[in-house]
Specification:
elongated; alpha/beta; four-stranded parallel β-sheet; Ribosomal Protein L4, Chain: A
C-alpha cells in the first residue's frame, strides 16, 4: 500500500488514504501507455475518407477523339487520372482503423499512466467537490485554491454531476469524467488529475482492486 494525502477544496491536508501500489506504483513498461493511447486515437477515426478512382467517376464512356491523325496524344477516356476531374490514383478509400487491445492491457496502461503522474506530483485527491449551482466562477476559485489554475486539469468523479460539469465546461483545458470512463489517453492528455475520494473508490471497485 502507498499513502496519498487527502485535501479539501482550500488545499488543506485533512488526512491520508491508502491505495494499492498497482494503481499508483505500477511496474509495467511505459510503452504500454503509448500502445493504449495510439489505439484510443485510432479508434476515434471514422475511416470514411474516400476518393473516386477512374472506375467511379461519371462519364468518359466515349473516346475523346480518334486514335491517329489528330496531332494530339492518344486518350481513351476523359476520366483518366491524367485529365482534370479524372480519377484519383492510389487515393484514400474507406477503411477500419480499429485496434483491439485486451481489457487487462487497457487497465495496466491506465495504472501506469497514473503511476507516471504520481511520480511527477500531478495527482490530487480531494475529499469531495460540491457545487450548489452551476457557476464557472466557483470552479475557477477551486482551481486557484488548489494552485492548478494554470494547468490543464481532469476531475474524476464517481458519477455524473451536472453542476460540476456545467461549471467546468467553459474553462479552457478543464475536463470532467466519470471513474468508469477514465483511460490512459485522458490521463496523458491533462497536466493534473484530480480525484475525489469517492471517485477513486469507484475506480478501484470497477477495476476489481481492493484497498
Amino acid at each position: 500500500m502507498i499513502e496519498i494525502e487527502i485535501r479539501d477544496i482550500n488545499n488543506n491536508i485533512i488526512g491520508k488514504k491508502e491505495v494499492p501500489e498497482i494503481i499508483f506504483n505500477n511496474p509495467a513498461s511505459d510503452s504500454v501507455v503509448h500502445s493504449a493511447v495510439v489505439a484510443y486515437m485510432a479508434n476515434q477515426r471514422q475511416g470514411t475518407h474516400a476518393t473516386k478512382t477512374r472506375a467511379m467517376v461519371a462519364g468518359g464512356g466515349r473516346k475523346p477523339w480518334r486514335q491517329k491523325h489528330t496531332g494530339r496524344a492518344r486518350h481513351g477516356s476523359i476520366r483518366s487520372p491524367l485529365w482534370r476531374k479524372g480519377g484519383i490514383v492510389f487515393g484514400p478509400q474507406p477503411r477500419d482503423y480499429y485496434i483491439k487491445l485486451p481489457k487487462q492491457m487497457k487497465d495496466v496502461a491506465l495504472f501506469k499512466a497514473l503511476t507516471l503522474k504520481r511520480k511527477d506530483n500531478e495527482i490530487l485527491l480531494l475529499d469531495k467537490i460540491e457545487l450548489l449551482r452551476p457557476k464557472t466562477k466557483d470552479m475557477v476559485q477551486i482551481l486557484k485554491n488548489l494552485g492548478i489554475a494554470d494547468n490543464s486539469v481532469l476531475f474524476v468523479l464517481p458519477d455524473k454531476d451536472e453542476n460540476i460539469l456545467l461549471s467546468a465546461r467553459n474553462i479552457p483545458y478543464v475536463g470532467v469524467v466519470r471513474a468508469s470512463d477514465i483511460n490512459a489517453y485522458y490521463v496523458s492528455l491533462f497536466d493534473r488529475i484530480v480525484f475525489t475520494v469517492s471517485g477513486l473508490d469507484e475506480l478501484l471497485k470497477i477495476k476489481g482492486v481492493t484497498s
